[in-house]
Amino acid sequence: MFNGQLEKIIKKRRSIRRYRPDPPPEEWIEKILLATTWAPSPSNIQPIRYVRIESKNIREKLKNEMACGKEKLLKKLDTLNSFEKLKKWIKIYYNRYSIFMFDAPVLFVVGIQKKEKGFYEKLKDAKLGINYHRDWALDISVGISICHFILMAEAIGLGTCVLTTPFIFIDDINKLLCVDNINFKCFLTLGFPDESPYPPERISISDLYIQI
Predict the structure, then answer these.
(1) Are residues 52 and 182 in contact, defined by beta-carbon separation less than 8 angstroms?
(2) C-alpha angle with apex 13: 10 to 16, nearest 5 degrees?
(3) In degrees rounded to 5, what are phi and psi of residue 76?
(4) CA 138, CA 84: separation in Å to the nearest integer?
(5) Would the pTM of this model clear 0.85, i.e. be above it?
(6) What Å distances lie between residue 48 and 105, 128, 178, 200, CA to CA?
(7) Under 8 Å between Cβ of 191 and 24
(8) What digits encode the pLDDT tens for the residues 73-119?
């Protein structure tokens, strides 16, 4: 019988951008990762990979790369003059929605393992005129896997945040991480929360739900 526990976890979860410095126990992290293995994927190929960035050297390189990327964008806009508002947004998204990830005790970058061509690619190669791309299904798989991750983390008392903005400031994440067989989609932070964000407004069911 439904007891509302999952509903409470879903409604309680927030995107956490401030963390306590103490790292979560490794067995907790393994429990969270185990939950992601139960996420569905096309033909059960299970292509989602979580790369944990522990190396201080790699973290520093990544941080420097992002700082340089931000400055490159700002310099390009300087030559175009009338983009002051956009420059402010770049600074906000860098400072508020990107750089905090390096203060998280645990940092992952999540992606899809590149594999040999499958059924959908062979259909495309046959030029049958089918308007379908396998990446659509794989992107959905990433989302479901991350959903398992963040809800399990919330259930055991940890905070998370999914980040895509940092990729704006990075030229080649695969080269920087020396990983060439994964198509990275987002960063993911994990740790004990050091903030309690206020619940954001949500759209109504009438706005969300459409019948045709």
Answers:
(1) no
(2) 160
(3) -60, -40
(4) 37
(5) yes
(6) 22, 28, 18, 29
(7) yes
(8) 999 888 776 688 899 999 999 999 999 999 999 999 999 998 766 67
Q: List, in order of start, the domains of the chain with CATH numbers.
A: 26-194 (3.40.109.10)
- Quickly count: other Cβ atoms within 10 Å of residue 9's Cβ: 15
Q: Across the chain, which distance is largest between two alpha carbons, in Å?
A: 63
DSSP class per residue in 163-193: E-GGGGG-S-HHHHHT--SEEEEEEEEEE-B
pLDDT exceeds cutoff 60 at 43: yes
DSSP 3-state of 108: strand
N-term to C-term CA, the chain: 32
Query: What is the C-alpha separation between 81 and 95, in angstroms, rounded?
Result: 22
What distance lies between CA 110 and its chain's CA centroid? 6
Residue 49 DSSP label: E
- The residue type at 154: E
- Residues in contact with 125: Cβ distance below 8 Å, sequence separation at least 6, in sequence order: 117
The CB-side HSE value for 202 (13 A sphere, CA atoms) comes to 9
